Amino acid sequence: MTEMKKHKILVVDDSKPNIDLIVEVLNNEYTVSVAMNGKDAVQLVAENPPDLVLLDVMMPGMDGYEVCKILKSNKKTREIPVIFLTALDEEDDEALGLDMGAVDYITKPFRPRLLERRVKNQMILKDHRDNLEEMVKQRTRLLNLTQDVTIESLGNLAEYRDQETGGHIKRTKNYVNCLATEIRKQGKYPKSNITDGYIELLTKSAPLHDIGKVGVPDSILMKPGRLTSEEFEEMKKHTIYGRDIIAASERSLGEDSFLSVAREIAYTHHEKWDGSGYPEGTKGENIPISGRMMAIADVYDALISKRVYKDPFSHEKAMKIIIEGNGTHFDPVMVEIFIICQTRFREIAIEYADFDEERQTLSS
Hints:
alpha/beta; Rossmann fold; 59% helix; hydrolase activity; HD/PDEase_dom; Response regulator receiver modulated metal dependent phosphohydrolase; Cyclic_di-GMP/3'3'-cGAMP_PDE
C-alpha cells in the first residue's frame, strides 16, 4: 500500500526555542522546514513551495507582514495558506494580518495542541480545495472532449459527402487559428474579445463551415465541372442547411452552446464585405468576425487546391486575388492580417496538401 505523502510546513521565526517547539509538535505528522528570517523564507518558498507557512510577525529586517505581502503578490505562491504566529495580541494587529491574506492568527505563547489542531484544520481545507480543483479540471476535460467528439462527428458527415473535404478541413482550421491569433497579437478588433477560449472554439468550429453540403444533391455536389446558374443557386443553400443542422444540435445543448460559433461560421462565410455575398447579403462589420476570417481561409484554400475544373494556383497568385478583393469581397483589416500570416498560410497548405501537384506548385 502506497504511503500517503506528508504535507510540507515551513516555519519562519527568528527564535530558535520557538522553532524547536513547533518542530517537536508537528514533525511526526508533517515534513517541516525552517527559516529564521524573512529573506530566507521567501527564497525557500520559491524553491520548494510548502503546503502551509507558519510565519512570525516580529523579525529583524523583513518582518512577517512583508513576507506575507510578497507571497500574496506572486501568482505562484498566493494560494499557499499563511498562519501568523506573534506576540502581538491587539485586535488591529490580527485584523491587519487577516486583511493581508493570512488564514489564521495565533498569539504567543501558544499551546501546542491548539497549534496542532489549527494546522490540521488548514490542511483539511487545503485537501478539500485541491480535490475540488481537480474535479473542476476533470469536468473541464470532459466538456472539451464532448465538444471535440460532437464537432468531429458532424464534420465527418461532410467528409463522407465531399471528396475534397479532408485536407480542406485541416488546412482551413489552421488558417483560421493563424488569423485569430495574429488579430489578437496586433490588437485589431478590440471590441471582439478574442480570448484564448474563443480562438480554441473558433479553431474547433472551422471544420463545420461546409457541413450544409450534406443537403446539396449529389448531381450538383459531385459535378465534374462548373455549375449552371440554377445549380449554383442550389449550392448556395448549403449555408442555410449548415445553420439549420447546427442549430438543431444547439437546441439540445442550450442557448449558450459551444456550437454557436460553428453555426455563425457555417451561415456567414460566403458573405462579402460590400454586401454582394450570400445568403443574406450582409455587409461590412455586420458580418460576424468569425465569418470574415473563414471567408479568407476558404477562398485561399479553394485557390491553391486542385479541382477537376482547374489546376492549383500558386501561393503568389492566390495572394494577389485576395488582395484584389480588399474592401469588396474581404474586410480590409482581415486582408492586412492575412498578409502578415501569408508565410504561415503557405506552410499549412504544403503540410496538408492533398496532391503532390498542389505541394509542388506551392513550393516552387
